[in-house]
Design brief:
8 helices; 2 strands
């Protein structure tokens, strides 16, 4: 009888141990499956982030030169206005006074145009970890805010919707490529499409608060040019701050 009880007890103990081992193995398998799932999710997340980063860099590379050129042209005109008395020389009754105003509006609209083109291509990518793209995005945001803020008064305050509207009017398609219109076409459309902004520019450039806004915008544009042309392949190191 004792031997039988020992055999029964041993069988029960073996069953308990076997059940415990099976349960432990099942739990370990669950944990391992969860770890594998988490690892796969993280790999997908990081891969997607890298892909977005590469795509953002590709977009920035594509538009780096035209955006840098537009920023350089605008900051150059603002420097001439603030430091070289551009409108004092070519304003009033000067025979080229209207050309001076129209070319100034063109440079402003051209910058907004390339900014809008870049925004459209990159808005769904969300600038990731790349310092270059983040820096460009931050500078563009700061320039936009400089035009939006009321800290300088109402003169030349261009709201974000207006900035985009001006940019949208500048976008054209040529040979399957999205571009910003050139000055000749801009001038042809200035009297109908851009007349309101030209009239505002003519009036508000005379406001006492305008120079402070334009000076801060010019400084930020210089930083943007230097960021886009970090190796100074096209633009010199001595961009003048007004």
């Amino acid at each position: 009888m004792a031997v039988a009880w020992l055999g029964f007890a041993g069988a029960v103990l073996a069953a308990v141990i076997s059940g415990w081992v099976a349960l432990r193995q099942a739990r370990m398998a669950e944990r391992l499956a969860q770890l594998n799932s988490d690892l796969e999710t993280e790999v997908h997340r990081r891969t997607a982030m890298i892909d977005r980063g590469l795509a953002a860099e590709d977009v920035l590379t594509r538009y780096r030169e035209p955006l840098a050129a537009a920023a350089f042209d605008l900051q150059s005109r603002l420097y001439n206005i603030l430091r070289l008395d551009f409108f004092e020389m070519y304003g009033g009754g000067h025979p080229r006074a209207e050309d001076a105003l129209t070319t100034t509006l063109f440079r402003l609209a051209q910058y907004f145009g390339w900014t809008e083109i870049l925004r459209r291509d990159i808005q769904f990518l969300s600038f990731p970890e790349a310092a270059d793209t983040r820096r460009v995005a931050q500078l563009q945001s700061n320039i936009a805010k400089c035009f939006i803020t009321q800290n300088y008064g109402q003169a030349l305050m261009i709201w974000s919707d207006e900035q985009r509207a001006i940019g949208e009017r500048m976008i054209v398609e040529e040979n399957g490529k999205v571009l910003c219109m050139g000055y000749a076409r801009f001038r042809d459309h200035c009297d109908d499409t851009f007349a309101t902004w030209r009239d505002r520019l003519r009036t508000e450039l005379q406001d006492a608060g305008s120079p402070a806004r334009l000076r801060d915008v010019q400084h930020l544009l210089c930083e943007l040019v230097e960021t886009l042309d970090a190796r100074r392949l096209r633009y010199t190191d001595d961009l003048g701050r007004a």
